[in-house]
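Holo prediction — adenosine-5'-triphosphate.
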Amino acid sequence: MTTMIQVENATKSFTLSYQRSLKQTVLAKARGRKTHDTFNAVDDVSFTVSAGESVGLMGLNGSGKSTLLKLISGVMRPDSGSVMTRGRIAGLIATGTGFDNNLSGRENLYLNAAILGMSRAETDRKFDEIVDFADLGKFLDTDVAYYSSGMKARLGFSVAVNVDADIFIADEALAVGDRPFKRKCKKRMDEIVKSGVTMFYVSHAPGAVRNLCDRVLVMESGRLAFDGDVEEGIHFLHYDEGDDSGEDDGLGADV
Ligand SMILES: Nc1ncnc2c1ncn2[C@@H]1O[C@H](COP(=O)(O)OP(=O)(O)OP(=O)(O)O)[C@@H](O)[C@H]1O
């Protein structure tokens, strides 16, 4: 089985500063107090993902999921250890970050596609599909500056899901939009998984993870605390108890 993602002893640390101003920092140093602290947001994490696997990444707020996703997508590099991926990565990570407010939706579509590694010819071919999915109607030639945040997210997501990727990564927290659009996104992600693309999906929603994933990783204070069966992972997090067990519709559920 081909390995698509290989994370070996990856560690990423951040520095927290206790003082807000230079004056406070100088005073704290003069008094021999600590001015900052370093902690590991991702702490010695190792796992591999094979081609066609669909992995749900779960864990409480601040446990390191987004940081791990950034390491996998290449937005950040680990301080130690290694992260290797095979093929083209696309997905819902900081969608729309490449948008230019002074350009129209149409121009931003091409810009965003280029950032995701699509050639002009490939974007031309996918253009109608992307526009249909975003459903921006007459606003396609309006400057993005006048778009609502939901409209921007629709355009960003529509480009992302139409890239022919080998690995699709998605952070549900970024899936904003109204209910019909979320439903459409969920359907598209189902199709992506069924087509055999390797999926790496950050979610707090047990229902969505059950639907989409065949394996769960659980982060706990930067460490990989669980790696295995979906139901066991959800149980490990106690997300199958009380109100959490309700069948949420998944993508974009409240976090
Ligand atoms: N750029 C940064 N600088 C400093 N600290 C950071 C930075 N990014 C994340 N952190 C910290 O790292 C820890 C892990 O954050 P991360 O966003 O990876 O968590 P998460 O599991 O995705 O949380 P959530 O479920 O709330 O999205 C948190 O304590 C967060 O405050």
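READOUT: The mean pLDDT is 86.
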